[in-house]
Design goal:
Length: about 70
């Protein structure tokens, strides 16, 4: 169970990072902060960041969980 949580957390983290970096090529967060315009890619970038955060949390739970 511990290894599967680590692997799942790492996979979710990598997917979130890739999604966030792909969406950030369009300068979405800069436009959101300067103009207040929320586009589709801004939402995808935020979801990618949250997904990466969830992946880190899952991996940490896998590290700290005792079998």
């Amino acid at each position: 169970m511990r290894k599967s949580l680590l692997l799942l957390g790492f996979i979710v983290f990598v997917v979130g990072i890739a999604l966030g970096f792909y969406a950030s090529q369009r300068n979405c967060l800069i436009v959101f902060f300067t103009r207040g315009h929320m586009s589709f890619w801004t939402a995808i970038e935020l979801i990618g960041g949250l997904t990466a955060l969830v992946g880190i949390i899952i991996a940490l739970i896998g590290l700290l969980k005792k079998t």
